[in-house]
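Internal QA ticket QA-208
Title: Verify multi-chain structure generation after dependency bump
Assignee: T.L.

Test input:
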Amino acid sequence: MVMEEKRVFLNGPVVSGWVISVLMGVMMVVMAGCAGGWKGEARYRIGVSQCLDDAWRQKMNYEMERELLLHPDMMLSRRIAYGSNALQCAQIDSFVSERVDLLIVSPNEAEEVKPAVTRAYRAGIPVIVADRRVTGEEWTAFIGGDNYKVGQLMARWIREKKPVHVLEVAGLPGSTPATLRHKGMTDGLPEGIEVHSVMGSWYREEAYAVVSDYLAKQGEADVIVAHNDLMAIGAAEAVRDSKRYVGRKIPIMGVDGIKPGLQAIVDGLTECTATYSSRGDMVIDAAARILHGEPYVRDTVLETTLVDIKAAYPMLRQDEAITRDLETLHLVQTQSENRWKQLKQDKRILFLCLVVSFVLLLLAFGYIIFRQSRLQTEIKQEILPQLETMQEAIQLSRRDEAFAERMKQIVDEHVTDPNLNVEYLGSMLQLSRTQLFRRVKAVTGKGPLDYIRERRLIRADQLLYTTDMTIQQVALEMCFSSASYFSKCYKEYFGHLPSER
Ligand code: FRU
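Actual output:
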């Protein structure tokens, strides 16, 4: 039975270990599910580096976000350089060190931003250059407008006006649109037209300042061409505020065809604009194709057209509808982002709960295993020896009982035999005198002689009680030397004389 007990106890930790392994496995699977396997979570992170944050770029950003709805496996992380080449390079470099899956760059100035783009490209990150180009060929795809053609449209419009002096409000000179628009325009102008260039760097305020200054310094301008709509508006405001041109209007052309530009045409501030599509949707589509390993067009050049007052009004209406769409899109996006945040939070809580319960489970199992091994040790070291001692004691007492029984039998058989003494009893029990004394003392608490006498007195008492024998006769029968000695012994044992019974 003890062995059986041992077996059960020893099996305990083995079973617990097995249970723990299974539980751990199940928990790991559940935790892994919680940690990252949520359906819908973006797989690709795309870094977007925008050189500026004006109306044209905001439109481009919206277009990208809208297209992104079709690609739930992609997410955008956008950084704006606010016209700083150094900041843009640093932002691109940080995208590279974050190991984004793809980079979209709209470079501020071609030459200055090129090194960062090259670093990203050489680091194995696909790079889509959008709108403005970088010099060299180390990029994956390009999507942008035909700036030379924009320049040609400007030239065509200028030619129609037959001016002598053209004031060109140019964009940032290091950017490819500024360079190509200027070239397209000058290439398309006949001899005899004088082009004066001032630099507005793409900003409305800057254009206002340089045009005001130009006019104040008696500069001549029969027409003004600005490299974008915002600068065209700035130039128109400068003309309006110029003392030299009070009551006079200078025809002004912009580029882009974005909402403020169209509004300026409708309001009569400027005369026309050339479209310059941002097409953020195409950029995202190309990104998806590259990331999914599908075929894509490496160099996409977008068309441009002239927009006059006739085209501007419907375009403005369309633009307003798009803006409304974009606002709705933004609302939906914010709502969906909030849901995602909640989902992520829940996920974190669930994960925490699992970790806590896992730790508690481990602690519980650890404690059980510890307790089992302690119990086993206690059983081995304390209980089992005690059991063994008890078993030994039981066996010992059984031996004593058997001995006492045999001795009683022998003594009772020979109780009337005068030869029954210590030697006789010892020989019958095959024990030496000392052994006999020790064992009789152990089982009866008295010496062998006293024991023999006790048995004789008990038999004597029976005889007195059951027969007509006299005390004298009984004393002799029970081997007492005299009746008086028998009476003395009898009284000592029973507490009264045999005659008093
Ligand atoms: C917007 C913008 C546009 C212009 C384009 C050229 O940031 O200035 O107005 O057409 O960039 O890259």
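Spot checks passed. The two ends are 54 Å apart (CA to CA).
Status: verified.
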